[in-house]
Amino acid sequence: MPPLPIANSSLLVRADAGHDKEWMRLVSAVLTENDDGFRAYVEFVDDPDWYEYLPDQLRAALPHSSEPSILFSADEKTLTTEDFPIVVIDLVEHRSSFRSIASELWAIENNLNISNMDWEDFAKCVDSQGIFRGFV
How far apart are CA 97 and CA 94, in angstroms? Predict the structure, then answer.
């Protein structure tokens, strides 16, 4: 397995071979600023080498010199579900993954990468489907 690219920002890896139009809509949604001007700062990886990879496999493929504390994955469920529930993968303590809708990814990316908040702050706020939809 080749290593994922080294990046200063968290990666959002496309892990689904289909749904090209949905992938482009997801990229747009992630890059869109919210009403307060916040957005996720991620680098997108759209490479067939990573299609069908599971979160643990992606985590293992990340170079150890990588700076970010989280990794994101867009699998088939992400690309075929309203609000694009992206897989959020912990790179520090390898805790269980959860999902976040695309419009709330900024909160996770912004806060976890600068250690402003903890993993549990988000993980404990997921709904019954395991999806973080914001602090409501």
Answer: 8
